[in-house]
Design brief:
Blueprint lengths: L1 E8 L2 H5 L2 E3 L1 E4 L10 E4 L5 E7 L7 H9 L9 E7 H4 L8 E5 L6 E6 L5 E4 L14 H12 L3 E5 L5 E2 L15 E2 L1 H4 L2 H4 L1 E3 L11 E6 L19 E7 L4 E3 L3 E5 L5 E8 L4 E6 L5 H4 L7 H13 L8 E4 L3 E17 L5 E9 L9 E2 L12 E12 L9 E12 L2 E6 L5 E2 L6 E6 L10 E4 L2 E3 L4 E4 L2 E4 L10 E10 L5 E2 L5 E5 L5 E6 L5 E3 L4 E6 L11 E4 L2 E3 L3 E3 L2 E4 L2 H4 L6 E9 L11 E11 L4 E2 L4 E3 L6 E6 L4 E10 L2 E4 L4 E4 L2 E4 L10 E10 L8 E7 L4
Parallel strand pairs: 5-6, 5-9, 9-10, 10-19, 27-35, 37-44, 46-53
Antiparallel strand pairs: 1-25, 2-20, 3-4, 4-25, 7-8, 11-12, 13-16, 14-15, 14-17, 17-18, 18-19, 20-24, 21-24, 21-25, 22-23, 22-24, 26-28, 28-32, 29-30, 29-33, 31-32, 33-34, 33-35, 36-38, 38-42, 39-40, 39-43, 41-42, 43-44, 45-47, 47-51, 48-49, 48-52, 50-51, 52-53
């Protein structure tokens, strides 16, 4: 799943992890937002140690450089100190100290080591002053050490040398010996150049005009900073001496393809070096030797390139940024204050493994990121700060931010859903996985009831991660489940903290009948009541179905596990004698989890719709006081309180003059009975369900005459 990625360096601690060259870390940030910012140091001077061949011109290079170093963009502050090759060859480490000298006065400038400088430059003289003017083994080792620790290296005319001497094939060669500088020639890993043999007479092939190499990238910084170099320009006398291209880029060549200006960058070790073939004419002009204008400007560009690629007066290189897994970068932003004509150049390099690095790629301000930068795990940025003009205040960098997205795999528990229920006896747990690259099951983990499980219990089907629990479920179980770790093919890892619970419900709801009991009698209108419950997932109220004699009852009340069907809901059914009542219920387990669990309870009742029967036959009576036995019967029971007797129009309400003996009502109203009297009597009664008995009238005749 695309998860936003944001990495910002803005504080003192952030910037302190990087490397500064002529850069100061300001604290607090002048904008007042935090405690860190970057600016050029007060002494933003590029320090160059020129190793010159003994007896040759000390100040020719310094004179030329100083005359133009402020004329370009950016304006450069360059400080050159010199040391003769004989003294330099006594060192064996970049930290070995020795005296260095002022190029103009020759006075001792101090005691320093190679690591006190930003660039070491070798030159200038024809043949570099002689065939024996090569580096010592110790000095060569020191130069390599210096380059691998961030120092720039610049070679000039004839430092690389491999010219043939006299041989049978060249019998006219005046020099009986080969001319070679094996240790300069073997600096190839940090210069990109080696040497191959050239003819004894190659140095006589003098040229004074150079042209940009046809394969040169016209947008490369070395052609533009600090000077916009033309496509061709005049130079002082020059010739080839065996220089041979191995790696890097040739920028200018002589008319026969001779290498005149070359640069090299090793991305793995971040080594910068340049070669500029000026100096031949010093042999003839000595201290009066002066390069041409564009020759000098080209030399400054080459020297500036050796200073971390030549993009600023000061350079800040961040520590390595490990994003954890590849980032799809959208933008890299530098927030900076740029007074006057100052500038900040952002460069980025990238790696997929943290070991093999790309070259530095300039990130144009406000433009889309170059495609090759946008999808990697490791990044490093470099800021080159420039004043523009000597009078400009320093630019100030407030923060640097990387923004984009990462394909962090995400898991969502879908079956059983969080806090839900399952009725699958031997079920599985399923997670919906969102990722653009495949999961690597070998690195995935699931915690089940606190115990971690790996890929032996995991499988992937499409976008679903399936976990197979070690045992089947039991009714009433409560389980916890969590994804402990996800990793995809891109190497993006997610270790979620959330755990979820689900419950196992393998049993259906319980129905306990309250009324009417089975095999009992009810009236035509009766209440149905039952307790319907499920202690785990609960009863689904929408599932409740009640049928009476096959008819579905739609009116009922279900509250607090009690189901009630009010009497009016069944009164209209016109029920017969024996009626079946059924209650159906299911629980809340979802259908995709083997649910729901279902249950049905059915029973029968007798429906009594007839009132009591009264025997209405006329009788003769001979007692002095009226006492009438009346047979009143009901299949269920007579509601005695409902009994009414009408005697000659007078109503008697139970129990007035009445008593029941079984199914016989004894009516004794206390009325005297004379011979020949006739009484009209009528009896009304209901059963316990309120069914009215059929009323009838009859006569009682008093006959006391024998």
């Amino acid at each position: 799943m695309a998860v936003p990625f944001e990495y910002i360096e803005t504080s003192l601690d952030d910037f302190a992890d990087g490397d500064t060259v002529l850069i100061s870390i300001l604290s607090p940030d002048p904008d007042g937002t935090d405690d860190g910012a970057l600016a050029l140091s007060a002494d933003d001077t590029i320090r160059v140690l020129q190793v010159y061949p003994d007896g040759h011109c000390r100040d020719c290079v310094a004179r030329a450089i100083y005359s133009y170093m402020h004329a370009g963009t950016p304006s450069l502050n360059i400080k050159i100190e010199v040391v003769p090759l004989s003294a330099f060859n006594r060192i064996s480490s970049a930290s070995d100290s020795g005296q260095v000298y002022d190029p103009f006065t020759g006075a001792v400038a101090g005691t320093r080591c190679l690591m006190d400088y930003h660039i070491v430059m070798f030159g200038i003289a024809n043949g570099y002053g002689g065939r024996h003017n090569d580096l010592s083994e110790g000095a060569r080792a020191a130069v390599v050490e210096f380059a691998l620790n961030g120092g720039g290296v610049m070679l000039t005319h004839d430092t690389i040398a491999k010219r043939r001497g006299w041989s049978l094939s060249e019998p006219l060669c005046p020099d009986p010996f080969n001319y070679e500088h094996p240790r300069f020639n073997s600096l190839t890993p940090i210069t990109g150049l080696d040497a191959e043999w050239v003819s004894c007479f190659e140095p006589e092939n003098i040229y004074t005009h150079v042209t940009r190499d046809a394969g040169a990238d016209p947008s490369h910084p070395i052609l533009h900073y600090p000077f916009e170099l033309p496509a061709e320009f005049d130079v002082t006398q020059c010739h080839a001496f065996g220089e041979h291209f191995v790696a890097g880029q040739v920028w200018y060549r002589g008319p026969d393809g001779q290498i005149y200006m070359h640069s090299f960058h090793d991305p793995e070790n971040d080594v910068f070096a340049s070669y500029f073939s000026t100096g031949h004419q010093e042999e003839y002009e000595g201290e009066d030797f002066t390069p041409t204008e564009w020759e000098t400007k080209g030399m400054i560009n080459a020297m500036f390139y050796a200073f971390f690629g030549g993009r600023g007066n000061g350079v800040y290189t961040s520590s390595v940024i490990d994003a954890g897994c590849p980032v799809h970068l959208d933008s890299i932003i530098v927030n900076a204050t740029l007074p006057g004509s100052t500038s900040v150049v952002l460069e980025v390099r990238y790696s997929d493994d943290g070991a093999a690095w790309s070259d530095w790629v300039e990130i144009p301000d406000g433009r889309a990121l170059p495609a090759e930068v946008t999808h990697h795990r490791y990044f490093q940025y470099r800021l080159s700060l420039s004043r523009g003009l000597p009078t400009d205040d320093s630019p100030v960098v407030h923060w640097v931010g990387f923004f984009g997205e990462q394909d962090i795999p995400q898991a969502e528990l879908i079956l059983p859903a969080p806090n839900s229920f399952t009725a699958c006896t031997c079920g599985v747990v399923e997670f919906l996985i969102t990722t653009e690259s495949e999961l690597q099951l070998s690195g995935c983990r699931v915690r089940y009831d606190g115990t971690p499980y790996g890929d032996d219990r995991l499988e992937v089907r499409g976008d679903t991660l399936i976990f197979h629990p070690p045992e089947c479920f039991e009714d009433g179980d409560t389980h916890t489940i969590a994804v402990g770790r996800l990793i995809n093919a891109e190497g993006c890892v997610n270790e979620p903290e959330d755990s979820h619970t689900f419950f196992v419900d393998l049993s259906p709801p319980t129905i306990i009948l309250i009324s009417p009991p089975p095999d009992t009698a009810v009236g035509a209108s009766f209440i149905i009541r039952a307790e319907v419950s499920d202690s785990i997932s609960g009863v689904d109220p929408d599932s409740l179905t009640i049928t009476v004699a096959g008819e579905t009852i739609t009116t009922f009340i279900f509250t607090d596990d009690t189901l009630t069907v009010p009497a009016p809901a069944v009164a209209h059914l016109g029920l017969g004698d024996s009626v079946e009542i059924c209650i159906y219920a299911q629980d809340m387990v979802p259908s995709n989890q083997c649910g729901p669990n279902r249950t049905t309870l059915c029973w029968r009742v007798y429906v009594d719709t007839l009132g009591p029967a009264v025997e209405c036959d006329s009788v003769f009576f001979a007692c002095e006081s009226l006492e009438v036995p009346i047979y009143v019967h009901d299949d269920v029971a007579v509601m005695r309180e409902s009994t009414v007797v009408v005697l000659d129009g007078a109503e008697y309400l139970y129990p007035d003059g009445m008593r029941f003996e079984g199914d016989t009502l004894i009516f004794t109203p206390g009325v005297p009975a004379a011979d020949g009297d006739t009484f009209e009597i009528q009896v009304f009664a209901q059963d316990i369900f309120g069914n009215e008995g059929e009323s009838c009238a009859w006569q009682i005749v008093v006959d006391r005459t024998p």
